[in-house]
Specification:
The chain is α/β, with parallel strands linked by helices and 336 residues long. 44% of the residues lie in helices and 19% in strands. The protein contains 10 helices and 10 strands. Helix 2 packs parallel to helix 3 and helix 5 packs parallel to helix 7. A hairpin with a 2-residue loop joins strand 7 and strand 8.
Length: 336
Amino acid sequence: MYILGIESSCDETAASVSENGTKIISSVISSQVDEHKKYGGVVPEIASRRHCENILGVTKAALEQAELTMSDIDAVAVTYAPGLIGALLVGVNFAKGLCMASGKPLVPVHHIAGHIAANYIVHEDLKPPYLCLVASGGHSHIVEVLDYTRFRVAGRTRDDAAGECFDKCARAMGFPYPGGVHIDKAACSGDSEKYILPHPKVTGSEFDFSFSGLKTFVINLLHNSAQKGIEINKNDLSAGIQKTISEILCEKTISAARKLGYNTIAVAGGVSANSGVRSAFEKACAQNNMKLYLPARELCGDNGAMIACQGFFNYLAGHRGDESLNAAATLSLEEI
């Protein structure tokens, strides 16, 4: 079975063809990073316009790379939530038009479920139930994966996401957007013990995250040091930020796994590409006799392959969309 997956939730226009979900035949991504870099972050209006310009070409390229035509495709999967509403609408309406013209079934896919599915592409032995941390620029969720299409959220961020914290701290240090990769690189040459950073807690919600306090602490540290003429070592601060975020993500996830009875953990989303996060989870899971699954680095960010993969499981579960399918900027995994 061939599934065409389309992703346009933020600033990547992506399309991919999968065979039976986990075998990726093609994957094409048009990134807008260079354009948004000069603004220090994603500009929603620009992102939507670029999706309009790129989505047809990206989809055609994915089909050509797979050496298939729409007549060979069994279903079209598309991200419909959550994300930037204008960006999502481009993908949803394009997919609806494609399905109306070709007569193929339309399969809606939740973006976070897509990130989780990225692990299935490289780990054939990973099967539900298990616990998954999804950490990216817009999301920080601890998810119980009950089945391929059923989820329960055990913890989530109350404010900034982990990736957002990375990016905003990086911006305050003068690194270009996206900042997470620059902090990762700088941290390799830094002393993670030089700066002691806070581990914010969420009262009454043991598995929820809060990263705004850490972000504010770093920004204030930089501003106060500049006012006093004290030089901040960016490598050391980067190492401290990376260590602190990694510890917070790891401690909460391991704690949730213990309490909820899971010994298999997966990590997904853009932050799962961070070397400090990967290393922290590898060490913690080994110490706690838990099995760890990490996606390939090229599948950590937004891509069409993860949507095609999750689209396959949604199709088997009978999930379908029609001409009334709409995009949603926010939607819990538990509502799908």
